[in-house]
């Protein structure tokens, strides 16, 4: 455990940020799964589900939770699945 006041604060801030990042990552994974299920089941709103997932991916990349190339790869994979089913 840190003794210096600023180090104590950094521990608290890091813990809070970790929780926020986990929350965003969890939401991201949920939206991607929903989009994949919508594509596989050929749901009427599959394009909308992909749009929401792509938005979540972009938000995660903007916050630095995902690397920009990882975000591009995930978006590309979703688009490829969507267009293959069309």
Automatic annotation (TrEMBL):
<dbReference type="GO" id="GO:0070181">
    <property type="term" value="F:small ribosomal subunit rRNA binding"/>
</dbReference>
<dbReference type="GO" id="GO:0005829">
    <property type="term" value="C:cytosol"/>
</dbReference>
<keyword id="KW-0699">rRNA-binding</keyword>
<keyword id="KW-0694">RNA-binding</keyword>
<dbReference type="InterPro" id="IPR036510">
    <property type="entry name" value="Ribosomal_bS20_sf"/>
</dbReference>
<comment type="similarity">
    <text>Belongs to the bacterial ribosomal protein bS20 family.</text>
</comment>
<comment type="function">
    <text>Binds directly to 16S ribosomal RNA.</text>
</comment>
<keyword id="KW-0687">Ribonucleoprotein</keyword>
<dbReference type="InterPro" id="IPR002583">
    <property type="entry name" value="Ribosomal_bS20"/>
</dbReference>
<dbReference type="GO" id="GO:0003735">
    <property type="term" value="F:structural constituent of ribosome"/>
</dbReference>
<keyword id="KW-0689">Ribosomal protein</keyword>
<dbReference type="GO" id="GO:0006412">
    <property type="term" value="P:translation"/>
</dbReference>
<protein>
    <recommendedName>
        <fullName>Small ribosomal subunit protein bS20</fullName>
    </recommendedName>
</protein>
<dbReference type="GO" id="GO:0015935">
    <property type="term" value="C:small ribosomal subunit"/>
</dbReference>
<dbReference type="Pfam" id="PF01649">
    <property type="entry name" value="Ribosomal_S20p"/>
</dbReference>
């Amino acid at each position: 455990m840190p003794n210096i006041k600023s180090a104590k604060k950094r521990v608290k801030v890091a813990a809070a940020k970790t929780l926020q990042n986990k929350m965003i990552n969890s939401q991201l994974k949920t939206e991607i799964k929903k989009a994949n299920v919508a594509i596989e089941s050929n749901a009427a709103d599959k394009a909308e589900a992909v749009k929401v997932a792509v938005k979540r991916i972009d938000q995660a990349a903007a916050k630095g939770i995902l690397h920009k190339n990882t975000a591009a790869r995930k978006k590309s994979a979703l688009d490829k699945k969507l267009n293959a089913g069309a």
